[in-house]
Amino acid sequence: MSSSVLQNVLEVLFSDIFFYLSPILFVFAFTLFSDRLIDLAYGAIQHKRRR
C-alpha cells in the first residue's frame, strides 16, 4: 500500500508539478552557486592584473 502511494505521489509530482517547479529550482540553484561564480571571475581578473 505505501509503495503505491509513493508511486502515485511521484507520478503526480513529475508529470504535473515539475513543469512549473523546474524554473523555480533553476533560479534557486543559480542563487546558491552565484557567489562561487563571482569569486571565480574576480579571482581570474585579479590574477590577470598581477602579471
List the keywords:
51 residues, rod-shaped, single chain, mainly alpha
Descriptive account of the structure:
There is one protein chain. The chain has 51 residues and is an all-alpha fold. The chain has a domain at 21-51. Helices cover 96% and strands 0% of the residues. The chain contains one helix and no strands. The chain has one helix spanning 2-50. The chain is rod-shaped. The model has no long low-confidence stretch (mean pLDDT 85).
Q: What is the straight-line distance between the termini? A: 66 Å
Write down the overall geometry.
Answer: rod-shaped
> Strand share of the residues?
under 5%
Tell me the total number of β-strands.
0
- Unreliable stretches: none
Radius of gyration: 20 Å
What is the helix tally? 1
* Sheet/helix structural class: mainly alpha
**Main sheet specs:** none
Brief overview:
This protein has 51 residues and is an all-alpha fold. It has one helix at 2-50. The chain contains one helix and no strands.
Show the helix and strand layout:
Elements: H1 2-50
